[in-house]
# Entry
Amino acid sequence: MRQKTSHLLSVSDAHTEITSRVTAVSETETLPLEQALQRVLAEDVISKINVPPHRNSAMDGFAFKAIPDQLEQLSIIGNAYAGKPFTGQVGTGECVRIMTGAALPPDTDSVVIQENVTVENNKIHFTAPPEPGRNVRDAGSDIKEGKIISTRGQRLSAADLGVLASTGITHVRVFREINIGIINNGDELKIPGETLAYGEIYNSNRYTLSGLLQRPGIQITDFGVVRDNPDTIEQVFQQAGDSMDVIISSGGVSVGDADHIGNLLHELGECYFSKVAVKPGKPLTFGRFQNSWFFGLPGNPVSVMVTFYIFVLPALRRLMGETPKMPLQLNASCTGLLRKKPGREDYQRGIFKTEPDGSLSVTGSGLQESHRLSSMAQANCLIVLPADSGDVQPGTPVRIIPFTEFH
Ligand code: AMP
Ligand code: MG
# Structure
């Protein structure tokens, strides 16, 4: 039997190993804005217009030209609506009734809100001294013509789509979708709905993994369950390695006698690492098989989720062209004892909340063994404990990463 020893990589070295290899796909596609949410821009986008395009009113009121020794009364000579500007001239002693968003008549420079005037006989009377230039939005005050509004590598949010639309853009060029194959390995796995024989369990990783991967820009192919048989595993890998950008497997990468995936990678592909000083997830394996990047996740359901968030997701984002950014880490005071042995970087499941004084506190979400997926379902963050840390006493500040960072 092949000796399954390999170097235990630190979390940061494992990240470096991944980021030094995985780069963005080169192909792009053009999409209408309405299909581009959460897709990654493949080029900078420049605004061809000012937003707003014209100087306009920020309030409902009356537009006038401010002068020194402002007259106390002005005659109303017309109306300006959003989309229906007033086109006449506005002279001294005159004003125009104006609505929010209506273009400011060219001879005017200020708007008094209707609450600050009284209206009688088609004249307004200021009830407070008017302020020159008030309640006016200048052309280009949001976006100037020629400005870069979105950049290559940006994953488009709802706000980004709105910004792009506000400049009149209809289509954007984004990186193409990536194809990801899921393989679940294990003789013990049954599909929910089937009856469990003694020693069998339901394949939960399939559901967690496909749930984690359901994102715009990703096409998932489920290669099903492969049994603990080297030949069957090889067949499925040959098939997936031909057609997928990425293969993600669960199970079979540890050092047990039925763990064949690591061996297969060593023999038929390239293995860049197969042990990381992380808890949970030590047997995490990264390599290349035919045309695919390969992530071999351990079988334990919590290890699957943690290694996906910490290692796989950043790699997928790089592959999809996204500009790398670190997940936000927050400081929170831990409310109970957190058990930890020095040696590996721990990602414990936690429940954090805002205290009445605005500070954050975090509680471990129960026992931390890596088969207890329910602790993950209850949690809303990962608590990051450095490799050299031992037990963490109540009241100690710790770093947390909210799960929202992995959306
Ligand atoms: P392995 O990494 O293959 O040694 O599996 C580690 C643990 O994870 C074992 O207890 C397996 O039964 C369990 N496991 C493996 N695959 C799955 C799966 N797809 N769903 C749920 N548990 C799994
Ligand atoms: Mg197994």
Summary: The pocket of adenosine monophosphate (ligand 1) is lined by residues 184, 186, 188-189, 201, 203-205, 250-252, 254, 256, 259, 298-301, 371 (CB under 6 Å). The chain has four domains: 2-27+176-319, 34-50+143-175, 56-137, 330-406. The domain at 2-27+176-319 is CATH 3.40.980.10 (Molybdenum Cofactor Biosythetic Enzyme; Chain A).
